[in-house]
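Onboarding guide, step 5: your first structure request.
Type a short instruction followed by the sequence, for example:

Predict the 3D structure of this protein.
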Amino acid sequence: MRLSQKITGFLHNGVSTLWYFAVMAVKENFRNYVGRAGRTEGALSDELALLANGPSLADELPRLLAGARAGCDFLAVNYFAEHEAFERLRPAYYVLSDPQFFRASAQRDRVAALYRTLARKVTWPMTLYVQYYNPERFDYHAALPNGRIRIVPFHTQPYRGFRRLEFWLYRHGLGSANFGTVIQHGEYIGLLLGYRTLHLYGVDHTLTEGLTVDRRNRLCRIDRHFYDDGRPAEAHPMYVNATCPPVPYTMASYMAELAELFRGHEVLRDYAASLGARIVNHTRTSMIDAYERAADDRPST
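The system replies with structure tokens like these:
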């Protein structure tokens, strides 16, 4: 690398660092909420199984319910609580990071129903992780009147500068690689809590599958989840999360977001390695190429 490139890179990283600390000082703070709260009561394993909501989880759940990850702690996300497996697996951790869960959106009725489900079903100690960022001051405690659910915020302000400082921030619960999915936040939290091995299920990430552009030039996609009822799915216009009125994605903006999302997995892989931890992908159909694959779950060739 030439000297001019090194100088340019240093200046860019320096400006990014100053901007990050300024934003954190004004909009958030420097408290490591996840680290201070520690693990959920009774969560003692060195291994954590993370359950994303991709369609492949429907095939993986029977093995998990039969004890395939016996001895592991579990982390679930989004609408998993609506499935009957929720009360059988009794996850110690739950993550809700999508803006629809704390901002006004077209999904508000479904979100309200999810909070009622969580409040009713949880009869064991569980920690719910939510974004510290909460511009509309959504009251999680009012939505979840259940003393067994502990609510812990985590920081999501992106930092992209000096790598050593980046990982130092992660270790102290302060940074983010602009993670684009809730399961990435779950991985980050799992590493913060000291888990040595993370097992990923339902992380299909087939996010280009079913993309179309309709006659009104709207980007549409067939969005599938493991809890779908099996009926043929239809492509629907895609909108940026929790925007009122809805703001549609363009092909360019969506592809740029996907590139950043998959880069986030590479950052998590490298961060885990720096801690001596492993992230193992058990999803046979997964498009994530950053993590090691479980021996029995590698895609066939």
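Each response can be followed by summary notes, for example: The domain at 31-208+248-297 is CATH 3.90.1480 (sialyltransferase cstii, chain A).
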